[in-house]
Amino acid sequence: MKPATSESVLDRPRDVTVRSSTESDVASMVAIYTHHVTRGLGEFDAEPMQAVDINRRRKNMLRRRLPHLVAERDGMVVGYAYAVPFRKRPAYRYAVKHSIYVHPDHLHSGIGRQLLPALVEACTGAGYRQMFAYIDAENVPSQSLHEVHGFRRVGLLEGVGFKYGKWTDTLLMQRAIGEGTTTAPVEIAYSRTT
After folding, report:
1. Alpha-carbon span 11 to 17, nearest angstrom
2. Element (H, E) at 150
3. How far apart are CA 99 and CA 43, in angstroms?
């Protein structure tokens, strides 16, 4: 048996609860998102969102039966994840793309490993069949997390972002969920609202 290293200890999830987000989680989500917008690899918003923006998006996703989850540890929101339609046209209504954000003090501590399978399960239960992730090509930990959970690389979008004074590439990853393309889907209500 290998001795525990600080890295392997950090990788073990400790007392993490994944649940649906509530309005009282919005301030925590704003703080997490702000960190990723101003310092992170993957997000390209010019400035942080306000609480009203995140809360509006959250309510809209829940209305459309799309999951919006938080990970909580010791009463603190340490990450959140959600799924949105992959594309707005009706033919794409069985596909979703998702995002996961982890509190900077809890990166590499297993939060993503708790959120991603919960998100896949929720999307599968809602009738979706394909799930996509757009990941900064330099974000190796996120790529590895997705590969462990069945995602595969299906494309590279070269030079699509400009952040921190340089062009960045985005990796597109995909996995089938539920029965994937093996059977016809059960009809999902389609709404043009965002």
Report:
1. 16
2. none
3. 10
d(CA 48, CA 31): 9
- Tell me whether residue 112 is in a domain: yes
Residue 159 inside a domain? The answer is yes
Q: Are 94 and 25 in contact (CB under 8 A)?
A: no
Domain count, the chain: 1
Contact 32, 39 (CB under 8 A): no
Name which of 146, 149, 148, 192 is nearest 171 in CA terms: 146
Question: Range of 67's domain?
Answer: 15-176
Sheet with 130-136: list strands edge to edge. 16-20, 68-73, 76-85, 95-102, 130-136, 166-176, 152-163
Query: Within 10 Å of residue 122's Cβ, how many Cβ atoms?
Result: 22
CATH classification at residue 128: 3.40.630.30
pLDDT in tens, 16-70: 999 999 999 999 999 998 888 777 655 555 566 677 778 788 888 877 889 999 9
Q: Establish if 62 belongs to a structural domain.
A: yes
- Alpha-carbon distance of 16 to 74, in angstroms, equals 8
Residue 182 lies in a domain: no
Query: pLDDT tens digit string along 98-119?
Result: 999 999 999 999 999 999 999 9
**Cβ-contact 71, 90 below 8 angstroms:** no
